[in-house]
Amino acid sequence: MAAVLKKRALAEYSQVIQEQPVKPFKKLRLVKKKWSDTSAASVLIGLLEKQRSSNEAFQLLLRISDTPHLAEEDVAVAVKKLVEYYQQQTESFVKIKILSIFGDIGSEQGADIQNIIDETLMLLKRETSHHVRAQGLATLLRLCKLMPDNIATHHKLILLAKQYLNDTSHLVKQKALDVLGELLPVGQQTEASLQTTVRLISDYAQSQDARVRSTAFNTLIVLHGRGLKLQASLYDETCEALKDDYEIVRRAALQLIYLLAKSYPDHPAKLADSDEELRLVDDAFGKICNAVNDLSMRVRTQAAQLLGSLTLVSPKFLHQTLDKKLFSNMRKKRSAHERAWESVTSGEWSSGKKWADDAPQEMLDAHQINLISSGSCGAFVHGLEDEFLEVRSASVDSICSLSLNNPQFANLALDFLVDMFNDEIEDVRIKAIDSLTKISRHTVLREDQLETILGALEDVSMDVREGLHRMLASCSLSTKGCLQMCVESLLDNLKKYPQDKKSTWRCMQRIGSRHPELTLPLVPELLSIHPFFDTAEADVEDPAYICILMLVFNAAQHCPTMLQLFEETTVKHYGYLRDTMPQLVPPLKLGALMTTELATLPSSTPQFLTTLLSRLEGAPNARVHMELLLAAERDLNRLATIDDSVSGAAQFTALYITSQLLMSKVLADKMWCSNAANALQGNSIKNSIIQLLQHCFKLQHLFTGLRSADKATVKQFKLKTLALQLVHVVRASNHSALALCQHFLAQVEQTQRFLSDHGLAPDTFTLQVFKHMASLEEAKPGTVARVLFPLLQTSAPSNPPRPHTDVRMCRAVMSMPSASADSALKFTAGLVMGIPLDAELYSLRNTNTLRLKVKYPDQQTQLIVPRKSDLRLLNPESTETTAPDYRLMTTVLICHQVWTEALYVDISLAMDLTELEAGLTHKVSHSQDPCCIDLCKPIKVYVSPKPVRRGI
Q1: CA dist., res. 635 & res. 642, Å (int)
Q2: Is residue 522 a contact partner of residue 557, using CB atoms and an 8 Å limit?
Q3: How do 444-445 and 833-842 pair as beta strands?
Q4: How far apart are the C-alpha atoms of 49 and 63, rounded to whole Å?
Q5: Computed from CA positions of residues 930, 935, 940, 943, in that sequence, does the dihedral angle turn out positive or negative?
Q6: Residue among 286, 257, 292, 293 nearest 272 (CA)
Q7: What is the pLDDT of residue 355?
Q8: In sequence order, which residues have a C-beta less than 8 Å from that of residue 173 and are 6 or more positions away?
């Protein structure tokens, strides 16, 4: 007996010894992997001395720069070896690569940056190559940025940069100027010392090399961005650089002039060849306007962009940008007062004492006139007429920015923006339309302007047409004729483009609410009201007639007189549209004209929703609780169809209750965890589990605006569903459950992390799962299923969550294709036919999961990924809590073989979650795949593939 006990004790002791090395083994393996990377880099650096030529050494250095990061203990040795090899080299390209590697090594964690900087400074002292010096300065600048508080090292590098400014190479001078711009201590030196350095930098703006000149200006711009206040005296010499032959210099000078104008707007600036003085911002504005006529497209674009930010410019200079009549036939333009005064002082006859003193004094020599230096005259006109779309686009943006702060300038620029509606580039047209929409509060459209605007409605691009609808909705019209012209054009355009009906309805709604006084005299004509004859009743489903009703009803909201003109049919149509489109039709006080008042009543549905959910928590037993759940499910589904304000919350709670009831039904079936007696019963349980999984995915991915507690409830119910699926596969089927087990354990870890991060307590089932999974010795499917089975049998339905009314459910509304069985769409079998699709998607969080779902009569299902360009954002102001709405306009491509007769093809929109829920289920058809969630009901399209004709 003692021998048996001793043997058992030794066995237990051996088991303990065997378990201990498991945890350290993982750590040692990770450390060993890291050592393998560092040894590779160390070996490569050690091989430098064995290279026979500089080219071989350079190839090895390229491999060193591509190797993984060095360990802390290897950095010092690597730097030492590289320094020694640098001193042995004579080729510049090898030295440049070594200095570049110094910058990479300094970026490593634990590297001694100060030591690398000191070694680099020592190497540069004896260096004569210009390229090596430039690379050395670049490396030192990169390393010093990693030590922003080391003022002493920064001072050394600044002194070295000032010394290298005397170098003959432009590369070295450029790098030295970059060092001064990045490391000069702006707030830690005296004003006199800083201005001395600034003067030193500005002197190099007169260098003979254009690259050095542009770098000097860019250095001053960098210093300004770091908080150094540049002196206004730099303005004059910077203006001289605008005449430079090189584009890079002119661009840098333009930016510096702009910054000086923003810093000293009221500083006096003298005009050239004159004693007059202007405000610096006005003079800079004229200089930048001159650059709009530059030979370089980049300079013109930059100048047009900068003009929009100079909002402090005087109005007379600003207005002159839209008038280019400074010179006419080589004659100066003078005011009438100046011409009259000149005729008085000159005398009528010549004195004869001076030759040709009677010549016309206004005549000028053509060679003495510089048409380009015409100040701000016609700058925006030239920008809008430029041959490059970048310049035109920048000019439109600048005009819009300046017009927002200057109503008078907005009225002057209105004609020019309207002319841009005819631009050849669609992006420029859209930008002009959007700009006019932004400044619409300052402008009133005349008939001639409106005629040009309405002509753009014929544009093929839907973006242009919808932009015009938004612009017309925000603009003010001047006369009744303008309104009539606008309505007629919109109705004609609707006949040509019926897909624009919703955008046109919104446009008519805004036009009517903005112009009630102009709509009133047009009501009899718009509604076909005759004083003696009864006209035919219009079709309330006609989109054109709905447009007119939108205009009239929204105008009547602000003009009670209009209500007396409505006929009985119009009042009936109002009641219909008020019920079907409440967001477009306002409430009207029709009084005795309607038997039922349609005024908006205060809604109590949020309170009803709260009361309904409160009843579920006080159930005395399980049977009553199940009955309450059934009644709540029915009431919530009905509530979701009644009130849109709580529709999302009601649908979320109803779906959760439906899932709870379905799970209780599955657990109540005694055959759910054993082999079914027949295939029908087995398929029923399998389909119920698939449906449960799909409900979980809907709760997790279809709803937006959920709080952390609601998300936690969904995650825990999903964990319970995965446990149910795993136990069913292990005990009631012969399929492999290894992938499902790994997916379940990953979900357990994610759920536990989510609950701990948000400080939420798990429910009873989830808490037991956490405890049992943590105590498992081996996570095999059979072991996990044996642990989960009793937990599922004893689990009870949890109370449904109480989401707030901001919850929204993702859904889709398809307007095209239309379900019509009058005539079948015919195409040749085996080829492709396109069916246009138009749909609106609400609260879509992830566009990558959107799919076009096509189901053929033979039950084949295809999921097609739509193009990103086919999605149009409807609400750009959406936030993180409110998912954006989209409009999808695309073409669905279908293809099939010959059918005996015409049949229906189901087209719908779905959400594919296969990538997000990878490894969850085995391969199934799309109709049974829980990862494929329908967003709308399918539309049946009547299709008939025809056989290929043989011969002629």
Answers
A1: 11
A2: no
A3: unpaired
A4: 15
A5: negative
A6: 286
A7: 54
A8: 164, 165, 167, 204, 207, 209, 212, 215
CA-to-CA distance for 514 and 403, rounded, in angstroms? 22
Q: Which of 576, 584, 574, 585 is nearest to 502 (CA)?
A: 584
To 5 degrees, how large is the angle CA 639–CA 643–CA 648? Answer: 75
Between β-strands 886-894 and 833-842, what pairing exists: parallel, antiparallel or unpaired?
antiparallel
DSSP 3-state of 132: helix
Low-confidence stretches of the chain (pLDDT < 50) are 1-39, 326-333, 335, 348, 361-373, 595-602, 677, 921-926, 952
Q: What is residue 582's three-state secondary structure?
A: coil
Q: What is the pLDDT of residue 731?
A: 79
Rounded CA-CA distance 665/662 in Å is 5
**In whole angstroms, what is the distance from residue 798 CA to residue 661 CA?**
11
Q: What are phi and psi of 933, to 5 degrees?
A: -110, 125
Running DSSP on this structure, what letter comes out for residue 883? P
Q: How many CB atoms lie within 10 A of CB 803?
A: 24
CB 809 within 8 A of CB 710: no
Nearest to 705 by CA among 637, 644, 665, 652: 652
pLDDT, residue 145, reads: 86
Left, alpha or beta for 110 (phi > 0: left; psi -120 to 50: alpha)? left
User: What is the amino acid identity at position 470?
Assistant: R
- Per-residue pLDDT tens digits for 395-421: 999 999 999 988 899 988 898 999 898
Q: Is the sign of the CA dihedral 189, 191, 192, 195 positive or negative? A: positive
Instruction: State the CB neighbour count (10 A cutoff) for residue 473.
Output: 19
How many Cβ atoms are within 10 Å of 518's Cβ, its own excluded? 21
Closest CA to 78 of 97, 102, 54: 102
pTM over the 0.90 mark: no
Q: What single DSSP character describes residue 583?
A: T
Q: How far apart are CA 231 and CA 237, in angstroms?
A: 12
E strands within 413-487? 444-445, 476-477
End-to-end CA distance of the chain: 101
Residue 923 burial (CB count, 10 A): 5
Beta bridge partner(s), residue 945 = 827
CB 389 within 8 A of CB 297: no
Rg of the chain over Cα atoms, rounded to whole angstroms, equals 39
**At 110, which amino acid appears?**
G
Q: How far apart are CA 12 and CA 583, in angstroms?
A: 76
Closest CA to 402 of 303, 338, 306: 306
- Within 8 A by CB and 6+ apart from 802, the residues are 610, 613, 653
> Pseudo-torsion of CA 335, 336, 337, 340, nearest 10°?
130
And the tokens for 702? 């279809």
Q: Which residue from 754, 721, 767, 753 is spatially nearest to 740, judged by alpha carbons?
A: 721
**What are 808's strand-pairing partners?**
704
Q: Which residue, 733, 696, 926, 709, is CA-closest to 804?
A: 709
153/294 Cα distance (integer angstroms): 43
- What amino acid occupies position 423? D
Q: Alpha helix (H) ranges present in 797-911? A: none
Q: Which amino acid is at 302?
A: Q
Angstrom distance (rounded) from CA 215 to CA 358? 54
Closest listed residue to residue 282, CA positions, set 237, 257, 317, 230: 317
Residue 249 tokens, joined: 């210099």
Amino acid letter for position 735: H
**Amino acid letter, 768:** Q
Q: What's the rounded Cα separation, in Å, for the pair 794 and 780?
A: 22
Say if residue 498 is preceded by a cis peptide, omega within 30 of 0.
no
pLDDT for the residue numbered 17:
39
The values of phi and psi at residue 935, to 5°, are -100, -10
User: DSSP per residue over 719-756, as a string?
Assistant: HHHHHHHHHHHHHH--S--HHHHHHHHHHHHHHHHHHH
